Predict the structure.
Amino acid sequence: MHSAEGELSFWRKYVFSTDHKVIGKQFLFSSLFFFIVGGLLALLIRTQLAWPWEEIPVVGPLIYGEESGNILLPERYPALVTMHGTIMIFFFIIPILSGAFGNFLIPLMIGAKDMAFPRVNMISYWVMVPAFLVMVASFFVEGGTAAAGWTSYVPLSARPDMIPGSGLGQTLWIVSLLLVGTSSTMGAINYVTTIVTLRAKGMQMFRLPLTIWALFITAILVLLATPVLTSGLLLLLLDRTIGTHFFLPDGGGQVLLWQHLFWFYSHPAVYIMILPAMGMASDIISCFARKPLFGYRPMVFSIMGIAGLGFIVWGHHMFQSGMNPVLGITFMTSTMMIALPSAIKTFNWLATLWRGQLHLTAPMLNALAFVSTFVIGGLSGIYSAATPVDIFIHDTYWIVGHIHYVLFGGSLFGVFAAIQYWFPKMFGRTMSDRWGKVHFALTFVTFNCVFFPMFILGERGMPRRLADPYNYNFLASLQPLNQFMTVSAYALALSQIILFANFFVSLYRGRAAVANPWLANTLEWTTSSPPPLENFHTAPVVHRGPYEYSSPEVSEDWLPQDRVLGGAAAD
Amino acid sequence: MGGSLPQVSTFAGPIDSLYNVILIVTGVAFVLVEGILIVFLLRYRRRPGQKAAYVHGSRQIELAWTVGTGFMLFLLAIYQYRSWIDAKLNLPDESQAQVVRVSSNQFEWNAIYPGADRQLDTADDIKAPINVLHFPLDRPVVIHLESVDVLHSFFVPALRIKQDAVPGRPGRLWFQATQAGEYEVACAELCGLGHYRMRAFVTIEPQAEFETWLAEVAARQQ
C-alpha cells in the first residue's frame, strides 16, 4: 500500500475513498453546503417575523411563487422552522463536528494510519448522501416538506389531515433521518473502535487530546441514544403508513410516548452537538495560551459527567407536557446538576488563560467566543430547568435564545475556530488571519444582536413558532425589536460571506502551510500538511501528554508528544 | 418577568420572584466569568521572549469550585420545589373550586361549564362561545384540559399558567385569579397552519358577575 496513492483511480481517490481525510472533507463540504441552506431558511423566518405577510422584493416571487401571491403562506411557516432546525442539527452541526472533524482528526491525533474500518467509514458518508437527497426532495412533493417542527410531535406529524406538510413530506423526513441515524451509528462504531485499538505506541488514554476524548464520549452517546430515535421513527413511520396506533390515541396509542422516545435521543444529541466543540476549543485555547490545559483530568471527567447525566434529564423538555408533575421534580434536580460539569469546564478554560501568553489569532478568538457565549447559553438553561419559571418561559423565545447560545454561540464558534485552526493541516495552505479576525468581530457582534433579544422576547412571553405574533395585544409592541433582530440577522449572514471567501480563496491561493504552523504539540502537526495517505512517514511514538506548553525541560514553549528528550531530538 | 404583563394569579408573585432570584445568581456568575475572561485577555497578552506559567492544575481549586457550584445548583433546585408543587401537584378540592373543561381543537378554545348539578358531562353543561372564557375572581379554578385533534398548549401569560392539551390524555391545571380584567390566551405548542392565530380571551370577574354571565350563556343555549 505504500505507493497506493498513485495507483488509485479518480473515483477511489476522491469519491468512494476509504481515506479518513477524504471522507472528513466530504462531510466538511456537504455540511457547509447545508449550513448555507439552513441559514437561508433562518433568514426567511426572520423576515416573516419582522414584516409578516409582506412580499419580499425580488426574492419573494422566486421563493414563494405566483400561486401563493409571491408571499409566505401560513402553512409554509411551520415548514420553515421545521426544516431550519432539522437541517442545522442533522445536516450541519452533527456532521461537521463528528463527520468532518471526527473523521479527519481521530486517526491523525492518535497516531493511526486510518480508521479501524475504512470501508464502513466510506459507507457512513455514502448513506448520508441519500439522506441529503431525500430531505431536499421533500421540499418538492405535494403538500410540501415536513412542518410539524424539528421535534415532529405527534399527532401533528402522524396525521396527514392536520397540516399540509404532514403528507409525503413528513414520510420523507422520517426516511431521511433513519438514514442519518444509520450513518452516525456506523461512524460512532468506527470512532470508538479506532480510539480503543489503534492508538500509537505510548498514547495512553490519559495522553489523548481533549478533542479525541470529546469525540470518543460523543461516539458512545451516539451508540446508546440513536437506536431509541430509530425505534421512535420506525413506529411513527408505521403509524403513518400501515395504520398502527403507537402514538395515536384513537387506537389506544400514547401521544407522550413519542416525546419520551424523541427526547431520550435528542437531549443527548444536544451534547453530541456540543462536546466535540468543547474538546476542540480546549486544544485551541491551550495551544494559543502556550500553557498546559488547566485540570486535564477534571476536564475529561466532566465530559463523562455531562454524557452520563445527559441520559437522565430528557424530561425537562416535557415539564409542561402533562407528564406527571412529580417527574418534574426529579428532572429539575438532575438538570440543575448537569450545569455542574459545564461550569467546571468553563472554570478550567479560564484557569488555562491565567498566567498564559495569549496569542489572539482568529482560531483563538473564536474559541474564546465559544467560552463567553456558551456561558450565556448555560446560565440561561438554569431558568428553563427551574420548573416554576419554566411554566412561563416554556415554548417561548427564551428557549430559542438558549439553544442558539449553546449551538451557535457554542458549537458554531467552535466550528469556526476548528476550521481555521486545522485548515492548514487539511489543505496544506493557510487561511488569512486578518480576514479571519474581521469575520470574527462582525460575527460576534451581530450574533449577540440577533440572539440576545430572544431572551427579552421570551421574558415577555412570546411563544416560538408563531408566524405572526403581533395579532396578540401583549406581543404587538415587540415588532420593532424583532425588526432589529432581523436586520442583525442579515448582517450576520452577510458576515459569513467573508468566512466562505477566505476559505475558498485560501484553498487555492493561501500561503503554503508548514507541518506545524501553530507550534502545537499534538500528533497531527508532526506530519506534513496535508498528510500523506496513511498519515505518518514513520509510526509515531508518544512520550507525554498533549499540553506540554512552556515546559521547563526545553527552551521553546512547545514540546510535541512524540519528541524524544535527553538524546537526539526527533524531528 | 412578563414585562408589562400584570400579575393576576396567586402563582405570579412566587414565579416572578423565583425568576428574579435566578436572575441575580446567574447575573453574578455571568459578570464574574466574563469579567475574569476580559481581565485575563488584557493582562496575559503575549510578551516576546516570555513563557507561560507551567501549571497543570490544582486539586484544591478543582475541589473548591466543584463543591461550591454543586452546592449552589442543588440549593437552587430545592428552592423551586415549593412553587412547583403548589402549581402542579396541590390541586384544590374540586367541590370547593370552579371546575371548567377547556377543550381545544384546530384552532380554537372551548370552555364548558357544569350546570346546576355541578357535574360535567351531564345534560345541563354550559358551552361558552368559541374562544371566550370567563373565570371567577379570588376563587380556585380547576381546568380539565383536553384536545380533540393535535397537541395544543394553554398559555395565559398574565396568569403564569401553561400546560399542553394532550389528545387522549386529559390533564388538570389550576389557578386562583387575583385581579379582574380581560387577558389573552395563546397557543404555545405548534398545532398547524393556524397556530399563530389560536387566540382566546379570558375574563376574570367577581363571582356574582361570573354567575350572571354563565346564566346568560345558559339561557341563550336553551
Summary: The two ends of chain A are 24 Å apart (CA to CA). Chain A touches chain B through 101 residues (CB under 8 Å). DSSP finds 17 helices and two strands in chain A. Residues 76-110 of chain A form the longest helix (35 residues).
